[in-house]
Amino acid sequence: MAGQRDVPRIDTSKPHAARMYDYYLGGKTHYEADVRAAEAVVAALPQIVPAAHANRDFMHRATRVLAAEHGVRQFLDIGSGIPTEPNLHQTAQGVAPECRVVYTDNDPIVLQYARALLHSAPQGRTAYLHGDVTEPEAILASGELRGTLDLDRPVALSVNALLHFVPDERRPYEIVRTLLDALAPGSFLCLTHGIADIPDDELSDRADDVIGIYQRGGTAFVPRTKAQVARFFEGLELLDPGLTMAHLWRPGPEGPGLPEDALTLHTAVARKP
Fold it and tell me: Between 20 and 30 A from 207 (CA), which of 12, 98, 120, 222?
């Protein structure tokens, strides 16, 4: 399978963000350290659970919009996480079976489950590579990506619930720009990000507790303000409704399922001119 060599062993003694996210979604692919950390997060900030589901639902809606309304047939999902059906390729290929998808994650356990990401419709193709968003050049140069996607044609780049784990010293804005610079005009950026501008002081204090839980587990967690998240979209053309909360980005006819004033994640989809 793609990316199996030189993959680090799974360290079950420390929580991992991907496995904690799986816990929030009600999955079963996590270890005791992940459960302890995730339960501490939920106890401090119960809103993290609906936010995780809102993030997942946004991914499905954005993928359908890009495939159905904008003709996108190629997707690059960085920080894909542990497979949870329907996966991105199932949503995209449900619109257009010829869609091609590349998944990337840095958690070794995701590699073990990656076969679930490779059951493509026969008309399309999916691939998985073990990689880290902080090394965008390696992702772009990988044989899995180059053998699956044509970078001379538009690609939808998904970096959902990921960049708040990239501190400023790792240059998150430059990472996104490097990835976008390699993509053809007409490509799209789909991005969700943890929020720092929380108006309620008590809720903000609890969010700070969450940051501490992640940091004690060895994972940087850097929520950003709406203005800071907007910087990722500089030079791009935002699709309606612009930069908003995840549950408010083009909710389906059933509605967002959360109050309009709920705090989920900063979210937008934008086109590269």
Answer: 12
